[in-house]
Design a protein that fits this description.
12% of the residues lie in helices and 39% in strands. The chain contains one helix and five strands. It has one helix at 55-64; strands at residues 4-9, 17-23, 26-37, 40-44, 75-76. A hairpin with a 2-residue loop joins strand 3 and strand 4. The longest helix is centred in the last third of the chain and has 10 residues, at 55-64. The mean pLDDT is 93.
């Protein structure tokens, strides 16, 4: 059972990203929202409960911790066949 994921720019929400996770033959999408705290920019997927300084930190955290995801991130999608 492969757990593939990718992060892309959101087409519906300006300045946001989307984490797409394929798990158990289903794809779920999680909105990654930029926010500010103390004048610094962060990213969050859980309404500011967990803050990340960049997308790499968000991915590294979720490779070790599930957080709001059903499973930890495992295999980044590096090639898309069109």
């Amino acid at each position: 059972m492969r757990r593939m994921f990718l992060i892309r720019e959101s087409q519906q929400h300006a300045q946001c990203f989307v984490l797409s996770l394929c798990y158990k033959l289903k794809t779920k999408h999680y909105l990654v929202i930029p926010c500010e705290d103390g004048g610094r920019k962060y990213f969050t997927m859980d309404d500011g409960l967990t803050l990340f300084i960049d997308l790499l930190q968000l991915v590294e955290f979720h490779q070790i911790n599930k957080g709001i995801l059903p499973v930890c991130l495992k295999h980044p999608c590096v090639c898309v066949a069109l």
